[in-house]
């Protein structure tokens, strides 16, 4: 049950519903999780800087069960960076990611713990 949030300083009008759904689909593919279980939030128009610059930037935070080693996060980082750069025009060096491994008892849906 991945929880994903994309934070960016791109204005909301550049963050279409099509981008949102394409990101959800790509995450499902990359994380090897059913899309029905994904929760994806996009937050745009933020005041963000990186390296002393206000140029377009984004941070993708992915929390998922079983995302617990470099062999899983490195391929995901590459694929998602390429996807976001292509879809948003943000250069790869301004796309940051934070991966967190969740324990099944730390996530619930419909009032029931996943594990």
How would the blueprint of this fold be written?
Layout: E1 3-8, H1 17-31, E2 39-43, E3 58-65, H2 70-88, E4 95-102, E5 108-109, E6 112-113
Parallel strand pairs: 1-2, 3-4
Antiparallel strand pairs: 1-3, 5-6
Describe this structure in words.
With 115 residues, the protein is an alpha/beta fold. 30% of the residues lie in helices and 27% in strands. The strands form 2 sheets. Strands 2-1-3-4 form a 4-stranded mixed sheet, with helices on one face. The model has no long low-confidence stretch (mean pLDDT 95).
Short description:
By secondary structure, this protein is an alpha/beta fold. It is 30% helix and 27% strand.
- SS-based class: alpha/beta
Q: Which strands sit side by side, in order, in the main sheet?
A: 2-1-3-4
Helix count? 2
* Amino-to-carboxy terminus distance: 11 Å
Oligomer: single chain
Tally the beta strands: 6
* Computed Rg: 14 Å
Features:
single chain, about 120 residues, alpha/beta, 4-stranded mixed beta sheet, 2 helices
């Amino acid at each position: 049950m991945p929880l994903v949030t994309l934070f960016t300083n791109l204005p909301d009008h550049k963050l279409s519903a099509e981008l949102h759904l394409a990101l959800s689909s790509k995450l499902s593919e990359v994380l090897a999780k059913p899309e029905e279980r994904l929760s994806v939030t996009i937050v745009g128009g933020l005041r963000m800087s990186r390296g002393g610059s206000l140029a377009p930037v984004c941070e993708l935070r992915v929390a998922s069960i079983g995302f617990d080693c470099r062999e899983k996060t490195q391929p995901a980082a590459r694929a998602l960076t390429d996807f976001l750069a292509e879809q948003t025009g943000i250069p790869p060096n301004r796309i940051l990611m934070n991966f967190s491994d969740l324990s099944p008892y730390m996530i619930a849906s419909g009032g029931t713990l996943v594990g």
